[in-house]
From TrEMBL:
Coiled coil: none annotated. Gene3D superfamilies: Homeodomain-like (1.10.10.60), Jelly Rolls (2.60.120.10). This is HTH araC/xylS-type domain-containing protein. It comes from the Bacteria. Keywords: DNA-binding, Transcription, Transcription regulation. Transmembrane segments: none annotated. Pfam families: AraC_binding, HTH_18. Residues 225-322 form the HTH araC/xylS-type domain. GO terms for molecular function: DNA-binding transcription factor activity; sequence-specific DNA binding. PANTHER family: ARAC-FAMILY TRANSCRIPTIONAL REGULATOR, HTH-TYPE TRANSCRIPTIONAL ACTIVATOR RHAS.
Length: 326
């Protein structure tokens, strides 16, 4: 399947859509389950199947979906056209190329869609999203961890995140490939699908980070993001005082900012960065343990062994022996 045949497949009206277009609207009350939200009975629409990584569904056009909840996270991607999303009574318009992430158990509804309004929903178990992907991405760098923690806070506060991704070059490429693989599975279907999903989530983290950085990049508000980038680059030799001096701020204030925005003190961020670099060198090089320790900023080999064992609960050689190379 290619992008052209994918577009034809998604544009073709299903029998349900033909019925809805003729005015035969689906009766959601038929065999419906309800959840008590406040003083209202809200439809409970479950469409996630246990055992599957995630489910892809095309939203049926020519009808509205009433306020409802479900036990899975919903990621809606606007393949073409536009669609209203009503979340906790607030109306948002999802435009072509944009994505909205809606947390589980969040009351939301979908507005009426015309023939060109094609929306794709990814239905994902929250544990799968957090454990398999967000935790994996957050280990890549302190920047990724910062943005993912911010995304989680925003989701917990608003129950959704809107990604203004219409101008993203990569997102439509990743989504098209994911949809082609889903609708026309290859021999390595599961592996390819999971990795394409990682790319989608990674790009959403990038988009969120870019938007957040723009909001913080004002003269009246100090942005923590350049500090995190500085730590990632200079973790071998930097100290709290040298970092504070570089950004012309008080060391105590820097400590407060880091703790507030990342949940970690300066030393812990440096340690995580050193251990991440050590992990990569152990897996991907033949350098000796002593050479690796020196490369990541440790002159005292005994201290390096101590910190490594505290972090990974094994010795460097044991870690290297048990981890396959990439």
């Amino acid at each position: 399947m290619n992008t052209q045949s994918l577009s034809i497949l998604l544009s073709t009206l299903t029998q349900h859509e033909l019925d809805y277009k003729e005015g035969n609207i689906y009766d959601f009350s038929k065999n419906a389950l309800f959840s008590k939200i406040g003083n209202e009975n809200i439809y409970r629409l479950e469409g996630y199947h246990e055992g599957e990584s995630f489910v892809v569904k095309k939203n049926s056009r020519f009808q509205k979906v009433p306020p409802h909840v479900h036990s899975f996270v919903e990621i809606n991607y606007m393949f073409s056209g536009s669609c209203e999303q009503i979340i906790n009574g607030k109306t948002l318009t999802l435009l072509e190329g944009e994505i909205i992430l809606i947390d589980c158990e969040t009351v939301h509804a979908i507005g009426y869609t015309n023939e060109n309004d094609i929306m794709i929903s990814l239905l994902i178990h929250k544990g799968y999203l957090n454990n398999t992907f967000l935790n994996r991405l957050s280990n890549d760098s302190i920047i990724s961890r910062f943005f993912i923690n911010a995304m989680n806070r925003k989701t917990n506060h608003n129950n959704y995140i809107m990604f203004h991704s219409a101008n993203s070059r990569r997102l439509p490429l990743f989504m098209n490939e994911l949809l082609c693989e889903y609708y026309s599975p290859s021999l390595n279907f599961s592996e390819i699908l999971n990795n394409l999903f990682i790319l989608v989530i990674s790009e959403l983290v990038n988009i969120f980070g870019h938007e957040m950085n723009q909001k913080l990049d004002t003269p009246s508000q100090f942005s923590i993001i350049p500090v995190l980038k500085y730590i990632e680059t200079n973790y071998k030799n930097s100290t709290l005082n040298s970092t504070a001096l570089f950004f012309n701020i008080n060391p105590n204030y820097l400590t407060t900012l880091l703790k507030q925005h990342t949940g970690y003190p300066y030393k812990e961020l440096i340690l995580c960065q050193k251990m991440k670099a050590t992990q990569k060198l152990l897996i991907n090089t033949d350098m000796s343990i002593k050479e690796i320790a020196h490369a990541v900023g440790y002159d005292n080999l005994t201290f390096f062994y101590k910190k490594f064992k505290e972090h990974f609960h094994c010795l460097p050689k044991e870690y290297r022996d048990q981890k396959p190379s990439f």
